[in-house]
Every structure is written in structure tokens, then in C-alpha cells.
Amino acid sequence: MIVLEPDENEILEEKSVMIQNGARVEDGKLHVTNKRIIYEKIGERRLRRAEASKIFLEIPMYDILNVSSAVPKMSLLTKKKLAVEFRKDGDMQTVEFEIRKPEGIVDIIKNWATTSKRDHEDRLKQEDQERFRRELEMAKAKSNKSNVNVISFGRNGNQPSSSNKDTDIVRDNKANLPRPAETVEVCPECGSYIPEGSKFCPECGYKVKKS
């Protein structure tokens, strides 16, 4: 028994024989939905064990290239054939299903295949756009991180940021502040600070007397 997706509807379910590359797979069911063509091998009970049903072939509608029907010329009792050309792993393959009335289902499959291809292409485009958006966001994040480093350390390593400039100004201001009273000499003539080690006052020229 096949499991349908929430938005998947079954159009056809019929006992059928699948023919591919000259090999016949009998005792199966052909399922046609708005999304897939499925051939299910019907399970069977044997004397000592039971064989479960399994999906023998599954073709997404967007991989279908062509579909047609054929009527055998030799016998009126022989079932008609539904031929499906599809793409798998980059190669074109053909499979036939023996069913009672393939004519009515051919146009339905063609219509669903066209719709499915369009939806599939739109979905791929959306996935590509989403992937591009994520990559762009990652690139922006990396770029912003690099810009932070540039701002912090300056371009070419010699242009500090405004925050660093402020820090440098504070450091310069601290360097220009007068030292503690015990280490600072004051000119007795003009009251200016005399740099340590100076012999004369830089303002009035007073000669410093060394003790």
C-alpha cells in the first residue's frame, strides 16, 4: 500500500503488468497521482512466509518527458499499453504498463507533468534564492567583523579609530597634567612649573638653584 503526501491525490489505481527493457513484472498495481507514477509489486502469502508489497518503480511527475498509449494489433483481448518516457539519473528511460483504458489517463498525466515541472522549477529557484540570501548574510557578517577590526586598529595599522583617538587624547592630557607637588618645582619669580632637570624657568628665565 502506497502512502500519499498530504497534498497528493490518486487519479488511477489498477492492476497492471510493467514492461521495461524487455522484462515483465507481473502481479502489480499502477498508481497515478498528481505528483507521481508508482508501480507497486503486490505482496503474496506463501506456505512458510509472506512477502510484503513494495514500490518497484516511482517516477516524479516533473521527470516525465512524454506519455502515450498503444493498442496491440494482434488481439482484442490484450490489454492496451501506457508508455511513459522519463528522466532518471540524467538518462532517458521508457517503461510500459498494461492497463484497460490508457487513452483517458494520457492527457491527465501530461497536464499534471506540465504543472509539476513548473512547480518544481519554481521551488528550485526559491531554494537557490534562499541559499544566495544566506550566503550574502554570512558574507555581510564577515565583512562587518572585518570592518570592526579596521575601525579598531585603523587602515594600514596607523589610523586609530575615534574611540582610540579619544583614548590617546586622554593619555596626552594625563601626560600634560602637573605631577604631584613633591616632584614639581615652581619658579619663585613667576610661579610657573619648571620641568624636572631644567636649569632655567621656561617662562621668565629664572635660574634654578640646585640644592
UniProtKB/TrEMBL annotation:
<dbReference type="InterPro" id="IPR026870">
    <property type="entry name" value="Zinc_ribbon_dom"/>
</dbReference>
<dbReference type="InterPro" id="IPR011993">
    <property type="entry name" value="PH-like_dom_sf"/>
</dbReference>
<feature type="domain" description="Zinc-ribbon">
    <location>
        <begin position="187"/>
        <end position="208"/>
    </location>
</feature>
<protein>
    <submittedName>
        <fullName>RHH-fold DNA-binding ptotein</fullName>
    </submittedName>
</protein>
<feature type="compositionally biased region" description="Polar residues">
    <location>
        <begin position="144"/>
        <end position="164"/>
    </location>
</feature>
<dbReference type="GO" id="GO:0003677">
    <property type="term" value="F:DNA binding"/>
</dbReference>
<feature type="region of interest" description="Disordered">
    <location>
        <begin position="138"/>
        <end position="177"/>
    </location>
</feature>
<keyword id="KW-0238">DNA-binding</keyword>
<feature type="compositionally biased region" description="Basic and acidic residues">
    <location>
        <begin position="165"/>
        <end position="174"/>
    </location>
</feature>
<dbReference type="Pfam" id="PF13240">
    <property type="entry name" value="Zn_Ribbon_1"/>
</dbReference>
